[in-house]
Amino acid sequence: MRSYVPKTDEISQEWLVIDASNQVLGRLATQIATLLRGKHKPEFTPFLDTGDFVVVVNAERVAVTGNKMEDKLYYRHSGYPGGLKVETLRERLDKYPDRVIRSAVWGMLPKNRLGRKLLRKLKVYSGSEHPHEAQQPRTITL
What is the third-level CATH fold of 12-66+91-140? Predict the structure, then answer.
């Protein structure tokens, strides 16, 4: 029995819009990662990009459970001695709400060329407006 590998013209990619208001961050990120990878399609192949484009709106209204607003920390380092910067989830949501969802989804994608290609298909916006109306995206509820 041979494995089925879809050809490039057999792969259909559509645009999906997800409203992140009052959605729990981790659960939202897992569903976005599934859509980006294409695991919801019957022609899913682990080493090919069979997923859809995902547009997330209202990223500033994402919800978290427990005390994660103060307890969850984001680290970055400048490369210099003493250059460690620490930021809480609340601070990151106030400044860059799109980066919170992007980093949560990146944690659930493969860390290779395919994962970077999939992450480029994720578009996150803090408000309810997005510039992708020309692609005629389909709104889905999670």
Answer: Ribosomal Protein L13p; Chain: A; (3.90.1180)
Complete edge-to-edge strand list for the sheet that includes strand 122-124:
122-124, 53-57, 15-19, 138-140
Q: Where are the domains of the chain?
A: 12-66+91-140
pLDDT in tens, 87-121: 999 999 999 999 999 999 999 999 999 999 999 99
Q: 45-66: per-residue pLDDT in tens?
A: 999 999 999 999 999 999 999 9
CA dist., res. 65 & res. 75, Å (int): 21
Q: How is residue 118 written in tokens?
A: 């999939």
Q: What are phi and psi of 115, to 5 degrees?
A: -65, -40
